[in-house]
Amino acid sequence: MAMISKSILLTFLLLSFYSSINGRSVRDFYADRAQIINEENTKYIGGNLQLSDEEQLANDQLMAYKVNELDLVIMFYSHFSMF
Predict the structure, then answer these.
(1) What is the pTM of this model?
(2) What are the average pLDDT values for consecutive 10-residue runs of the chain, which has 83 residues?
């Protein structure tokens, strides 16, 4: 099964599982997910800092590199696995 097909299937299964346990909709799932992510982001060191425009631009660029790197690791996890 292709990687995208597995991702779609996993997403569908997780949403179905969430809905069956909580009796809530997919929209509720995404609202809950966004709230959890926002709460976690404020718990990081410096999560409540106000950045200048230049600092925000630099942070956005660094985060884009970080997200890209994590995406690559997820896509090619078998190359990075130590087990």
Answers:
(1) 0.40
(2) 66 70 72 85 75 92 90 72 56
Cα(43)–Cα(48) distance, integer angstroms: 8
**Which amino acid is residue 11, in one-letter code?**
T
HSE, CB side, 13 Å, CA atoms: give it for residue 76.
6
Angstrom CA distances, 27 to 14, 22, 38, stand at 13, 12, 17
Provide the token pair at 13.
């299964």
Give Cβ neighbours of residue 47 (< 8 Å, ≥ 6 apart): 41
Question: What is the C-alpha to C-alpha distance for residues 1 and 64, in angstroms, rounded to an integer?
Answer: 29
Alpha-carbon distance 79 to 73, whole Å? 8
Distance between CA 35 and CA 78 in Å, rounded? 31
Residues 6+ apart with CB under 8 A from 3: 75
